[in-house]
Amino acid sequence: MHAAASPSGPEPHWPSGWADVPDEALMARCRGADPELARRIVGELARRHLERLAGFLFGLTGDRNGSLDLAQEAFIRVFKHRENYKEIARFSTWLYTIGRNLALNEIRNRRRRPNLVGGGTGGGDSDEGQILATVSHEGAGPVAQTETADLRVRVRAAIAELPEHYRAVVILCDLEERPYAEAAAILEVPIGTVRSRLSRARSQLAEHLRGVWEGAQ
């Protein structure tokens, strides 16, 4: 059995603290832990992943403030369902699947109450979410050519206009540079579907942004 955790210190068998402990090992320890220790572990995981998860959700929903709420809700779900975590999966894959499902629920609810939704994709600082990164894989090109703040805003808007299933693969594979296999696991689709959606999404972005590049020359 594990020794009881000190309320104010790291686990006894992790003398250097939690900073270098892999996510998956933390989740394994979280299973069966008392609620206080489980909250501390989930808090450490949130410290590592909350900002990036919120960026992913912002890309899906276009709602800057709402994306942070959804990311926080995802970690509440992690705490509540910690016993369901299986070590065969990367923690980030499990987390992003939870987050994506929350985002899809929010998008569906938004369609039922369009007049109550705030936020949006316009404006904001250049470091909002992950939308300001560049598409660079496999010669994708269009986003990678973005250099000025004005063009970056237009690219962000173009990504936001993609259908959700295309937007998700662009964010995961191009902006976050996740492997196709992990993106497939998060989106719960075959790898072939990820590849085909990504190809179509890149084509749509290139078409949408062609006038932007020409006007910038």
How would you explain this protein's 3D organization?
It is a single chain. The protein has 217 residues and is mainly α. The chain folds into two domains: 18-120, Orthogonal Bundle (Rna Polymerase Sigma Factor, Chain: A), CATH 1.10.1740.10; 124-211, Arc Repressor Mutant, subunit A. The protein contains eight helices and no strands. It has helices at residues 23-30, 35-61, 64-80, 91-112, 149-161, 164-175, 180-187, 191-216. Helix 1 crosses helix 2 (35-61), helix 2 crosses helix 4 (91-112) and helix 5 packs antiparallel against helix 8 (191-216). It starts with 22 loop residues before the first helix and ends with a helix.
| SS field, number of helical segments | 8
Strand content: under 5%
Classified in CATH, the superfamily of the largest domain is RNA polymerase sigma factor, region 2, helix turn helix motif
Assembly state: single chain
**Residue-averaged pLDDT, rounded?**
77
Task: Determine Rg (CA atoms, Å).
Answer: 19 Å
One letter per element, helices H and strands E, the order comes to HHHHHHHH
**N-end to C-end Cα span:** 67 Å
Number of E strands: 0
| The number of domains | 2
Look at the structure and give the CATH class of the largest domain.
Mainly Alpha
Secondary-structure class: mainly alpha
Helical amount: 55-70%
The largest sheet is: none
CATH architecture of the largest domain: Orthogonal Bundle
From the 3D structure, determine the CATH topology of the largest domain: Rna Polymerase Sigma Factor, Chain: A
| Spans of at least 5 consecutive residues with low confidence | 1-12, 116-146
Q: What overall form do the CA principal axes indicate?
A: elongated
